[in-house]
Amino acid sequence: QVQLVESGGGLVQAGGSLRLSCVASGSIFSSMFMAWYRQAPGKQRELVATINRGGSTSYVDSVKGRFTISRDNVKNTVNLQMNNLKPDDTAVYYCGASSNLHYYWGQGTQVTVSS
User: Fold this and answer.
1) Per-residue confidence at 100, pLDDT binned at 50, 70, 90?
2) How far is Cα 85 from Cα 27, in angstroms, rounded to an integer?
3) How far apart are CA 80 and CA 21, in angstroms?
4) C-alpha to C-alpha distance for 113 and 51, rounded to whole angstroms
5) Which of 9, 73, 79, 90 could form a disulfide with 109 if both were Cys (CB 3.0 to 4.6 A apart)?
């Protein structure tokens, strides 16, 4: 069983920055595929960024050049650095992890960007 705990959400003005963190426990973190998702009110959950065991990353087009996903295999943490935030980035952000053919979710952290 994998537990994921997110932190770092909050309220920020457009153009500002936030850094989300997700701490994982219960499995070998270095072997896990990690991702960040977000869900805005009335919309489906959207994949935002991924990072695999080797450190390769991918991003949805709307955040390319503004968001950076990274992992620290010593601290069992995946981070999402979000710069130049826009009101459309407002959502609940979730950490996801794949381990041993199971997928796990964190509880989510709210990000609100005011115009």
Assistant:
1) confident
2) 32
3) 6
4) 25
5) 9
